[in-house]
C-alpha cells in the first residue's frame, strides 16, 4: 500500500484552505491591517493565516496569529473563536510532538465550553481531543470519539469542513489497519463533503486518499485493470490545481504529483506517453517546491522516480546521478527524513553492487544500517514520549473520576444532612416548649457522632483510593517495562543477524566471484521475513530465555536459545535456515539435539513443548 518514494501520509491532516500564491497571503495580511474590517472577517483571516503557516511548518508565525486571534476573541467574548484558536494552538504543538503541553490547552477549551454551552466551541474542543488521541496512537478510542462527534457535527451544516476532516481521520485509521472496505467508505464520504464545502485543497487530499484505498485491490491481484481507478483518482487530485487556481496549495499539488508518478511505476512496461508524463510531472514538482521550505522529502522522492526510469533504461550513470542528488538534498534537512533516505541509499548500494563496485556498495549498505538504527532510535524516542503522555492522561482522568465521585458523594451527604435538619427543625417546633433542653443536647450529640463517623469513613476511603492509585501506577509501569523488554529482545535478534551478514559481506569482498547482488537480494528477503515476525517476538514473555533454560536438562548455548525463540514463533525449518544462513539439514539436526537436551522423545514436537511451557506460566 505504501509506495517507495511517496509521502502521502504527510498530508493526512492538511485539510483546510492553503493558498498557492504568496500574493493571496499578502492580500489577507493587508486586509487584516485595514481600518474598516469587521471582527467576523478578522477571525476568518486569522484562521486562514494560521492554517497556512502551520501546514508550511512555520510554527512561530502560525503561533503569532493564534495569539492575536485569542486576544481578539477574549476582547469580543467570542467563545467559539477562542476555542478554535486553542485548537489550532494544540495542533501546532502536536505537530512538534510536544505532547505534555496539550492537556492544559484541552482543559482551557473545555472550561470555555462548560461556561458558554456553545455548540461550535464544543465541536472544536472535541476535535482537538480527537487529534490528541490519534497522535498518541489510541486508534480505537479515537474512532469512538469521532463517531460521537459526527452525530453532533452532522446537525451543524455550517461545519461541513470539520465533518469532512473527521471522516478523513477515520479513513487514515482504517488505512493503517489495512481495512480497505472501511477506508474506502470514509474516503468517499470525505470527497462528498469536501465537494460541498468548496474546499479544493481538502478535496485534492481526499482524491489521493481514495487512490490509496483502490490500490489495495491492485496489490492483491496485480491486474492492470485494478490499477486504472488508482491512476484516475490521482489525476483528479492533480487536475484541481489547474482547474481552480489559488485554491490548492503548491505543497499539496506536489504531493499529489508525487503519488501519481509513483503509481505509474507499477506498470510493467513504461510507454513513451507515460514516461513523458512522469518526467513532466517531476519537473512540475521541482518548480512547485523551488520557493517553499521543508520540501526535501518531496524533491528526493521525485528524483527517486526518475532514477527508477533511468535504471529501466539500463542507464546506470544517470540513475546514480539522480540518487546522489537526492541524497544531498535530504542531508540539508535536520533531522534527516529517514524513511526516504533509507530507500535512496539502499538503491545506491544495489546500483554499485550491480556495477561490481563492492567498496561503495558496502559503504552504502552500512549507511542503510546506520539510518535504519537512527530511524529506530527516533521511533523509540517518539514512543517513549507518547507513553509518558498516555500515562499522565490516564492518571489525570483517574484523579478527575475520583474527584467527581467524591464530590457527588459529598453532595448527597449534604442533601441528606439538610433533609435531616429540616425534619429535626419541624420536630423541634412542635416539641420545643416541653423538650427544649433535652432535644438540644440530643441533636448536638448526634451531630458530633455523625461527624466523627463521616470523618472516619472518609479517611478509610481515602486510604483505599490511595492504595488503588499506587497499585494502578505500579501495574502501568510494569506493563511499560515488559513492553520495552520485548522490544529490546526483537531489536537484539534483528541487529545481531544484520551484523553477522555485514561482517560476512566484508570478509568476502576480496573474492571477485561473489555475487554481491544475490547477497543483498537475499538479505532483503530475510528483512521482509523478519518484519513479519517482529511484532510476534515483541509479545514474548519477558523472561523467555530464563524459563527455557530452567526447563532444559542440559545447559543451552546462545545459539540454542536463538533456535528456541524461532521455533516458539512457529517458523519452519526453511525460514530458520534462511535467517541463520545455514542448511535446512543443520536446522533439523539442531532440533534433534534440542529434544535431547529437554529430555523429549522423537514424537514430541518442540513447538508444542514450548507452547505448553508458557501456557502454564
Kindly list the characteristics that best describe this protein:
mainly alpha
Can you tell me about this structure?
The longest helix is centred in the C-terminal third of the chain and has 150 residues, at about 360-505. By secondary structure, this protein is an all-alpha fold. Helix content is about 80%, strand content about 0%. The protein has 23 helices and no strands. The protein is flat and about 115 Å long.
What would a concise description of this structure say?
The chain is mostly helical. Helices cover 80% and strands 0% of the residues.
Quaternary structure of the protein? single chain
**Taking all residues together, what is the mean pLDDT?**
81
What's the main sheet like? none
Derived structural class: mainly alpha
> Into which percentage range does the β-strand content fall?
under 5%
**Rg calc:** 32 Å
Count of helix runs: 23
- Counted beta strands: 0
Unreliable sequence segments: 8-21
User: Termini separation (Å)?
Assistant: 39 Å
What order do the SSEs take from the amino end to the carboxyl end, as H and E?
HHHHHHHHHHHHHHHHHHHHHHH
Percent helix range? over 70%
Based on CA inertia axes, which overall geometry fits?
flat
Element layout with pairings:
Blueprint: H1 22-32, H2 39-55, H3 59-76, H4 79-95, H5 102-116, H6 119-135, H7 139-153, H8 160-176, H9 180-197, H10 200-221, H11 224-243, H12 250-264, H13 272-288, H14 296-312, H15 316-331, H16 338-354, H17 358-507, H18 516-538, H19 544-551, H20 558-568, H21 573-580, H22 584-598, H23 606-615
Helix pairs in contact: 1-2, 2-3, 2-4, 3-4, 4-5, 4-6, 5-6, 6-7, 7-8, 8-9, 8-10, 9-10, 10-11, 10-12, 11-12, 12-13, 12-14, 13-14, 14-15, 15-16, 16-17, 17-18, 21-22
Amino acid at each position: 500500500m505504501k509506495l517507495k518514494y511517496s509521502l502521502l501520509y504527510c498530508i493526512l491532516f492538511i485539510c483546510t484552505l492553503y493558498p498557492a500564491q504568496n500574493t493571496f497571503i499578502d492580500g489577507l495580511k493587508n486586509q487584516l491591517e485595514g481600518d474598516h474590517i469587521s471582527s467576523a472577517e478578522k477571525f476568518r483571516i486569522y484562521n486562514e493565516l494560521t492554517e497556512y503557516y502551520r501546514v508550511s511548518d512555520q510554527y512561530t508565525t502560525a503561533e503569532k496569529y493564534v495569539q492575536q486571534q485569542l486576544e481578539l476573541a477574549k476582547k469580543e467574548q467570542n467563545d467559539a473563536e477562542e476555542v478554535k484558536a486553542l485548537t489550532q494552538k494544540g495542533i501546532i504543538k502536536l505537530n512538534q510532538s510536544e505532547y505534555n503541553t496539550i492537556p492544559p490547552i484541552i482543559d482551557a477549551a473545555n472550561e470555555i465550553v462548560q461556561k458558554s454551552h456553545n455548540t461550535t466551541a464544543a465541536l472544536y474542543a472535541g476535535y482537538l481531543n480527537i487529534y490528541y488521541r490519534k497522535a498518541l496512537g489510541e486508534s480505537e478510542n479515537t474512532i469512538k470519539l469521532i463517531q460521537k462527534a459526527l452525530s453532533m457535527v452532522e446537525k451543524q451544516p455550517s461545519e461541513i469542513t470539520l465533518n469532512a476532516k473527521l471522516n478523513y481521520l477515520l479513513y487514515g485509521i482504517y488505512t493503517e489497519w489495512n481495512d480497505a472496505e472501511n477506508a474506502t467508505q470514509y474516503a468517499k464520504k470525505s470527497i462528498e463533503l469536501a465537494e460541498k464545502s468548496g474546499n479544493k485543497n481538502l478535496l485534492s487530499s481526499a482524491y489521493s486518499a481514495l487512490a490509496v484505498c483502490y490500490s489495495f485491490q491492485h496489490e492483491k491481484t496485480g491486474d492492470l485493470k485494478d490499477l486504472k481507478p488508482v491512476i484516475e483518482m490521482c489525476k483528479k487530485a492533480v487536475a484541481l490545481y489547474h482547474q481552480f487556481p489559488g485554491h490548492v496549495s503548491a505543497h499539496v499539488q506536489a504531493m499529489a504529483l508525487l503519488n501519481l508518478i509513483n503509481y505509474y511505476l507499477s506498470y510493467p512496461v513504461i510507454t513513451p506517453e507515460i514516461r513523458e508524463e512522469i518526467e513532466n510531472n517531476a519537473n512540475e514538482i521541482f518548480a512547485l517546491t523551488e520557493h517553499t521550505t521543508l520540501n526535501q522529502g518531496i524533491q528526493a522522492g521525485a528524483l527517486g522516480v526518475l532514477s527508477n526510469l533511468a535504471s529501466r533504461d539500463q542507464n546506470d550513470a544517470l540513475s546514480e546521478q539522480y540518487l546522489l542528488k537526492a541524497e544531498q538534498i535530504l542531508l540539508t534537512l535536520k533531522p534527516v527524513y529517514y524513511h526516504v533516505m533509507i530507500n535512496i541509499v539502499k538503491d545506491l548500494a544495489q546500483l554499485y553492487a550491480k556495477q561490481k563496485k563492492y567498496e561503495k556498495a558496502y559503504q552504502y549498505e552500512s549507511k542503510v544500517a546506520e539510518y535504519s538504527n537512527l530511524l529506530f532510535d527516533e521511533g523509540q524516542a517518539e514512543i517513549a514520549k507518547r507513553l509518558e503522555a498516555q500515562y499522565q492522561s490516564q492518571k489525570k482522568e483517574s484523579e478527575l473520576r475520583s474527584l467527581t465521585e467524591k464530590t457527588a458523594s459529598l453532595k448527597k451527604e449534604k442533601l441528606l444532612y439538610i433533609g435531616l435538619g429540616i425534619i429535626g427543625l419541624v420536630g423541634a417546633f412542635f416539641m420545643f416548649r416541653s423538650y427544649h433542653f433535652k432535644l438540644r443536647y440530643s441533636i448536638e450529640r448526634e451531630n458530633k457522632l455523625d461527624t466523627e463517623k463521616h470523618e472516619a469513613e472518609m479517611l478509610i476511603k481515602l486510604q483505599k483510593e490511595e492504595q488503588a492509585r499506587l497499585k494502578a501506577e505500579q501495574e502501568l509501569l510494569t506493563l511499560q517495562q515488559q513492553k520495552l523488554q520485548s522490544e529490546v529482545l526483537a531489536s537484539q535478534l534483528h541487529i545481531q543477524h544484520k551484523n553477522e551478514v555485514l561482517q560476512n559481506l566484508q570478509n568476502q569482498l576480496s573474492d571477485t566471484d561473489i555475487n554481491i547482488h544475490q547477497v543483498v537480494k537475499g538479505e532483503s528477503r530475510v528483512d521482509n521475513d523478519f518484519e513479519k515476525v517482529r511484532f510476534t517476538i515483541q509479545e514474548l514473555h519477558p523472561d523467555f530465555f530464563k524459563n527455557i533454560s530452567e526447563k532444559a536438562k542440559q545447559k543451552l548455548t546462545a545459539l540454542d536459545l536463538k533456535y528456541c525463540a524461532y521455533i516458539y514463533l512457529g517458523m519452519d525449518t526453511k525460514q530458520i535456515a534462511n535467517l541463520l544462513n545455514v542448511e535446512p539439514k543443520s536446522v533439523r539436526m539442531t532440533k534433534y539435539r534440542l529434544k535431547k537436551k529437554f529430555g523429549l522423545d522423537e514424537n514430541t514436537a518442540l513447538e508444542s513443548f514450548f507452547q505448553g511451557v508458557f501456557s502454564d506460566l
